[in-house]
Specification:
402 residues, alpha/beta, Rossmann fold, 2 domains, 8-stranded mixed beta sheet, 5-stranded antiparallel beta sheet, globular
């Protein structure tokens, strides 16, 4: 990947971007020095993504769409958000009202399209709340909604922290958990070791090994990959462990009094997550629509993600009093929500028809987002079957026993 200052296959940052990344490198280097020469990878990932004013999600660089680094499902087609709106409408009707809370609303297009469909259907939520830590993204969301739905301004509010307990309605988290910092563990003959990040004096970082940085890691791994399963994995196997996800589910449990939390992300049930053939973990980076596996280059200029262990989420939800109401693929969820009924091909618009067909392929096909992305439904106080899981429900696959 790297030779001198050249990064094969990846476009070089422009001078302004390189200077921005350099400032973040200096911040990370100071933290490494202050910690005695190394920091856990999870801390490096947290700084690379969220350091105030410098991290990938905290700075003003374009992230979504053709001018950014990746494209999310709501950016591909409004059909995705309209299907989510149908699921929201069912819950809002059956639960006799309530609001919608969206985590990390990106460019704001999903909120826009959900609200537009719900308004047309006569089922607007009492309020649409957006929890967005990035000031730059919040400004973009506000501009999107102000331009497209100015008359709904009073229903939309941005939050700096979760609302208090007692929330009624729907919580939406689309591609939220994959961007949470993960610890990276390594199986060695002498036991589990953790990958740390060191270096930085010359603006370059490297991995080094050390003992587990957090007592919860050993407990997590003992439950996730017990005895025989661990023995079956080869030495050098890399585990990506998201300790924050359990606490995040706990915050949902403390928040939700009646309604649905819908989690959409790429990931696997546990028996697939720690598959013997997935020896390098699940970490992926996205830079100018190119995917690669080196998170230590271009800090602040690229997205860093890890796949979600949906079994761990389901177990955390169950332990904290939520019901696992459904688990399926994105394709199956969209199909059950009636995406086929929303298609509108026009004989007079062949180019539009081609674009719509391309969008459907991206959302639905197994080789695209259709099976890579999963949908998990967590509920409290609902006694009806959810629309989106009425076709193919794979909740059984979340069992640790498979």
């Amino acid at each position: 990947m790297m030779k001198g200052d050249e990064y094969f296959e990846l476009p070089a940052p422009d001078p302004q971007a390189r200077a921005h990344s350099g400032r973040l490198c200096e911040l990370i280097s100071r933290e490494i020095a202050g910690a005695g020469g190394r920091i856990p990878f999870a801390r490096y990932m947290e700084l690379a993504l969220y350091a105030p004013g410098l991290g990938y999600y905290s700075a003003g660089r374009q992230k979504f769409g053709e001018a950014g680094d990746f494209v999310t499902a709501p950016e591909i087609s409004s059909l995705f958000s309209r299907c989510l709106a149908r699921q929201c409408a069912q819950v809002l009707e059956e639960a006799e009202g309530g609001g919608i809370l969206e985590f990390g609303a990106g460019s704001g297009v999903m909120a826009r399209d959900i609200l537009a469909w719900l308004e047309e259907a006569g089922r607007l939520p009492e309020h649409y709340l957006i929890l967005e830590p990035s000031a730059e993204l919040r400004a973009r969301q506000e501009a999107t909604l102000r331009e497209c739905l100015p008359h709904l301004k009073a229903r939309v509010a941005w939050l700096d922290r979760l609302p208090g307990a007692g929330f009624h309605g729907v919580v939406l988290a689309n591609e939220v958990l994959d961007a949470m910092p993960v610890h990276r563990l390594l199986k060695k003959e002498q036991g589990l070791r953790e990958l740390y990040v060191t270096g930085g004096g010359d603006g370059r970082f490297a991995y080094c090994e050390g003992p587990l940085s957090h007592g919860a890691l050993a407990k997590y791994m003992a439950a996730a990959v017990p005895g025989a399963a661990m023995s079956a994995l080869p030495d050098g196997y890399v585990f990506d462990v998201n300790l924050a996800a359990g606490a995040w589910v706990g915050s949902l449990a403390g928040l939700l009094k009646k309604g649905l939390a819908l989690i959409i992300d790429y990931g696997y049930p546990r028996r697939e997550y720690y598959h013997p053939q997935r020896g390098n973990g699940t970490l992926k980076c996205f830079y100018h629509h190119r995917s690669h596996d080196d998170p230590l280059i271009f800090p602040g200029l690229q997205d860093i993600t890890a796949h979600v262990d949906f079994t761990a989420l389901a177990e955390s939800a169950h332990d904290q009093g939520l019901t696992v109401a459904g688990y399926t693929t994105q394709a199956a969820f969209l199909e059950a929500c009636g995406i086929a009924d929303m298609l509108a091909f026009d004989d007079g618009d062949p180019l539009g028809n081609v674009n719509q067909a391309r969008q459907i392929r991206q959302l639905m096909l197994p080789g695209e987002m259709g099976e890579v992305f999963k949908v998990l439904g967590l509920t409290r106080g609902l006694d009806f079957s959810l629309l989106g899981f009425g076709g193919r429900d794979y909740t059984y696959a979340l069992s640790s026993d498979g």
